[in-house]
Amino acid sequence: MTTDAFQAIADPNRRHILEELRRQPRTVNELANGLPISRPAVSQHLKALLDCKLVTVTNKGTRRIYAVNTGGFLHLNLWIDQFWS
Fold it and tell me: Model pTM greater than 0.85?
């Protein structure tokens, strides 16, 4: 997997996951319901997003809740902002 956030968000499934998590934190099963890929594939995409710090995960009982990590987008924002200066 990659730790490059740009490479991570190049995948349309990962962008869809991020858009869903932007609305509210969700579990893998909740995310998989909205995608044409398997639950294990969603888990792999979440691992890539975790590795580049674009999402966080918290444990609530037996559930793992994923959410957007806004701090992880700082590198992306800084790189993009240089084109607007």
Answer: yes
